[in-house]
Design a protein that fits this description.
mainly beta; Immunoglobulin-like; 3 domains; six-stranded mixed beta sheet; binds copper (II) ion
Amino acid sequence: MKTSSVLVRLPVIALALAACAPAPTPTPATVVAAPATAAPTAAVMEPTVSYTLVTGGGTGKLNFVGRGGDIDGQPNPTLTAQPGDVVEITLVNGDYILHDLAIDEFGVKTPQLQNLDETATVIFHVELEGEYFYYCSVPGHRQAGMEGILRVGSPAPAAAEGASIVHSPSDLPGPIGRRAPQVVEVELTAQEVVGQLADGTTYPYFTFNGTVPGPFVRVRVGDTVNLTLHNETSSTLGHSIDLHAVNGPGGGAVYTQTLPGETHFFSFRTLNPGLFVYHCATPSVPHHIASGMYGLILVEPEAGLPPVDKEFYVMQGEIYTVEPFGAQGAQAFSMEKMMAEAPEYVVFNGAAGALTVDPNMLQAEVGDTVRIFFGVGGPNLTSSFHVIGEIFDRAYPLAALTSPPLTNVQTVSVPPGGAVVVEFKVDVPGRYLLVDHALSRLERGLVGFLMVEGAEDPSIFSGELTEGSGH
Ligand code: CU
Ligand code: CU
């Protein structure tokens, strides 16, 4: 999917010009043919802001080009006004092609101009804050690019809605069990998706298979993985994959630089057990990673992992937006903030607070043994992964599954492009918080809930509940 326009078409506003005190008639706009000075109503509709737009403007394109002032030379400039202004727009034919200028909400439309340097002026009153399209109503011209915005006041950006890109933490394949090495087919598709980043806020994600993180790939040591990477035809960029489980140049990236509409294939044998990050490795690599192109591949050791009651898949990433955390509307990627390693959002499984709402909260029952496969896509921040209210009975730091685990650990450090496996038993019911103990990041959307149901055990945990713990 291509990044959708930032603009949301506002509802048509019936602007009663009668409200504009000096206007003698209900005509929604004053339309006069050149010369503008001949306008009979110019005296009562004294413009407070004036703009001149030249069709084509010497660019050889179908557009409006600003003339004079701040908009000089700009194609389809954004015109601004304040509520209460009387706006004057003068249209100049700059290309011998038939054009006009219309703004539906204000009932504004110039006569059609055919000849070079012919001009027409519209004068109208604006009151309601909002963003309005000006465009050429000659068939096909608006679609070809003759469209711009008149912004009145500083309207709050409309809340934006996007696709859900959150990968459910309980969506992962079960244990491999004891079996001989085999050939495993893995198919991934690079998909560019305008997804929900936070309430009222969207971001142009890059994903594997439409979710962040991508699919949890589960194989055993000795397996041969046949990996096919498609890139959707609708993509704007090339994509690829580097799996840290691979022995070979680029982790596969050398074989998988895949343009929109293409498919590439490569094969690798899993020589090392462990939990590994995979990610897109197409420049700018950190941009692709920050936009969501990462996931985990578990290469089980020969005997597999000890059985547990619940397994979960969680990854941490950063999102760099031009506007600050919490801004409404469609957000754009900020290269500057990425280079400064100063994300606006830090997220588990792709979106702010993604794992704090149904159906994406982690669920367990008292007495369950829980295993979390946790990885950091990054691209830049190291996570101090911690579960508030729990202690990791076993932790495999750096996801070194063939080394003995550490026991009784509070917080594990997980580098970008790295992972950890933690295991613990939940003893009492309640809500447990997954965090990065660099807790400023919690204020940037980085928190998840593990909900545990079952009987209380006062011999382990008891007291009087107090207000305001935030847990
Ligand atoms: Cu990519
Ligand atoms: Cu890597």
